[in-house]
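Good morning C.,

I know you're traveling, so I'll keep this short. The sequence:
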Amino acid sequence: MIVGKVVKLTEKPSTLDVYTGAVRSALPVVGASGGRNLPSQTLELEGVRVDPDNLAAYARATGLRFGDTLPLTYPFTLVFPIVMKLMVSKDFPFAAMGSVHAENVIEQFRPISVSEPLDIAVHAENLREHRKGLLVDLISEIRVGRELVWRQTSTFLNQQKTSLSGQPGPEPKQDEVPPPPLRTQRVDRSIIGKYAAVSGDRNPIHVSTLGAKAFGFPRTIAHGMWSAATVLGAVEGRIPDAVTYSVRFGKPILLPATLNVYADRSDEGWDLSIKHPKKGYPHLTATLQ
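The tokens, ready to paste straight into the viewer:
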């Protein structure tokens, strides 16, 4: 889907430039637009090739298999720099730095071969109010030629006052002892540092203790998309070629951590989750359909 003017990129945006822009957009003098409009453009990058070494490093960081086709979540690393470039543009309504990745939906229409040239298009849509702030969807599409093979909707929350802020939130659930997990998983700063390197997502909340504290976290936290990838290891080999993967992110994973991983069959596919091993609250809940 093309929204507004098409801006064709000649190369993948530099991670350093993207995060420099993210820091600048968070400054009150420079700032994002602060309005309620979205960029009226679609960013496109054609002929993207997968780096097998990067893919292998991604597999090691997430625990997923390295093979001839891309893991369901790997294309996130290809579209992420372009998503960030759009989010740090001057007409984006809020600062990218400090925004929360609240939900993510991936639609894979067929497996993607490692050797295929990929055309990427990214645009923003559906800016809306939430009681905690503003939500916006970043839509990323990957095509091989004219064939749409992968689409992602990433929903970001910028916390601020809105007309809905006075609405009561849901009643907090009592912490409860979680059931025995399918497996437990250990994650620490070393693993997340490797994921940050291969994904390009070097947000300070993931890689810097001072950066994490600046945004209200006592320690660095794991990437939401790392958890979305690693939980797929519980059902790897049983994921259909055409699938919709819907993820909702819960409480952040403070590093280091031991996690409970769950995978349960449903009528449509799989229900997946990652929970705190003692208090039972979810870090991630997801469905594969």
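Safe travels,
E.
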